[in-house]
Write a structure and sequence with these properties.
312 residues, Pseudouridine synthase, Archaeosine Trna-guanine Transglycosylase, Chain: A, domain 4, 3 domains, 6-stranded mixed β-sheet, 19% helix
């Protein structure tokens, strides 16, 4: 049986996001499985797993804002900016207070250019930064624009550690913020632990651990809120319902004229059949008065692979 949908997994520490994909593939007995946003091996929490034809929706889900909770340890800097790395500096934290840390955090709220860690998946000449770093080769400097909406403490400074919450744009390096915060305070720091609690509208409370997934599959128990079929996956654009004639055209890769669609030209739409099932996603190619001309870009075929009608 082919499954098409989104699965919420609560990743444990010590495995890669690719490891999770492989284990989900085996547990669900599905070939097409992907994920929407990498978690570092030591990090835990929410990982969005696309299954079957939903793998073609990854591009719409991967850029969702993320929320994390974690712990920063001050006084020790590492080459990876987290607890897995080699210690590069140790400094005393005498005089470090909760108030000083909180004041320094404010500089990391807003939109700014973040220096990428040397141990990151960014590529240069087809080689990942972390591969260069592990070989002791020079890693080029690189930056990317990120947005942090919240960086706040969760409690008081306890010795050399402080728990925090981070709400940020996709692609923000939490360990980079921990490292830079320590540098700003003059004592150094690294990310001691990290847990992703949300990605867009998805929450870790609804997710299953891999062990829970395996057990539910073994006992044929429902996956509950951790599973969403194609038509229930929240997407960052509107739905449009089709009548029988429109559905036939869309399934055949042809444009359809849709009334009652307010989306502007170029906007994406999820297209639903008369039963409310998702059959395609497409774009408004043009507007003709009150009508939207909708071009299907990805058509979902029940029990089969996705059909693509353009290079997108």
């Amino acid at each position: 049986m082919t499954l098409d949908g989104l699965l919420l997994i609560d990743k444990r520490a010590g495995c890669t996001s690719h490891d999770v994909v492989q284990q989900v593939r085996r547990a669900l007995r599905q070939k097409r499985v992907g994920h929407c946003g990498t978690l570092d091996p030591d990090a835990t929490g929410l990982l969005l797993i696309t299954v079957g034809q939903a793998t073609r929706l990854t591009r719409f889900l991967i850029h969702a804002p993320k929320v994390y909770e974690g712990t920063i340890r001050f006084g020790i800097a590492t080459d990876t900016y987290d607890a897995s790395g080699r210690v590069t500096a140790e400094r005393p934290i005498d005089g470090l207070t909760t108030e000083r840390v909180e004041a320094a955090m404010t500089a990391f709220v807003g939109t700014f250019e973040q220096d990428l860690p040397a141990y990151s998946a960014r590529k240069v000449g087809g080689v990942k930064f972390y591969e260069l770093a592990r070989r002791g080769e020079e890693v080029p400097e690189a930056r990317k624009e990120v947005t942090v909406w919240e960086l706040s403490r969760l409690g008081e400074l306890a010795g050399d550690r402080l728990e925090f919450r981070l709400s940020c744009s996709s692609g923000t390096y939490a360990r980079g913020i921990a490292h830079d915060l320590g540098a700003a305070l003059g004592c150094g720091a690294h990310l001691a632990s990290l847990r992703r609690t949300a990605a867009g509208p998805f929450r870790v409370e609804a997710a299953l651990t891999l062990d829970e997934l395996v057990e539910r599959q073994r006992s044929e128990a429902p996956l509950g809120d951790a599973w969403m079929p194609l038509e229930r996956i929240p997407l960052p654009f509107a739905d449009a319902a089709l009548d029988a004639a429109q559905e036939r055209r869309i399934r055949n890769g042809q444009t359809a004229l849709l009334p009652g669609v307010a989306s502007p030209e170029g906007e994406w739409l999820r297209l639903l059949d008369r039963r409310g099932a998702a059959i395609a996603v497409g774009t408004v190619s043009e507007r003709v008065g009150a009508l939207a001309v909708v071009q299907p870009r990805i058509v979902f075929v029940p029990g089969a692979d996705v059909v693509g009608f353009s290079r997108i």
